[in-house]
Amino acid sequence: MKNVTDSFVSLGHWPSAGSLGFNTDILSTNLINLSVVLGVLIFFGKGVLTDLLDNRKQRILNTIRNSEELRRGAIEQLEKARDRLRKVEMEADQFRVNGYSEIEREKLNLINSTYNTLEQLENYKNETIQFEQQRTINQVRQRVFQQALQGALGTLNSCLNNELHLRTISANIGMLGSMKEITD
Predict the structure, then answer these.
(1) What is the CA 49 to chain-centroid distance, rounded?
(2) C-alpha span between 76 and 85 (Å, rounded)
């Protein structure tokens, strides 16, 4: 570093034509150089920098607009989904209420049907019992009648002789003849 500063120092001692010379103070020369560089950059780079900043601003604004549109679309979709959810919940409640009503109705129908079937079965049972009682009574009557008839025939056969037998037959024939005359 000593060589660089020495070269500036030695340049400062050149004999010049007038008061023009080199400034050997590094700090003041740096400020001047920086201000010149900044002035040139601002003058020439102003348009480029402005274009870059405008492009960046437009991209940011477009991103914000797109985000707002997406947000609005998402909010609309959310509202539609909420509306659909409300409708579905209402339909589900209706189905639930109708389902419970239908279940109760079917339950009552099943109870009534079962009651009617039991009533019919009870009637069939009573009719069957009555029929069996009547049939049993008729069978008992028939047996009693057969036994009485056999007993009477047995008594008649043991008590009847030929003459009594012929008189009975003649009386019956006479009764049949008189009945025939009445009907003619």
Answers:
(1) 63
(2) 14
Tens of pLDDT along 97-131?
888 888 888 889 999 999 999 999 999 999 999 99
Which amino acid belongs to residue 84? Answer: R
Q: Which residues contact 8 (CB under 8 A, 6 or more apart)?
A: 22, 24
- Answer whether 0.70 is exceeded by the pTM: no
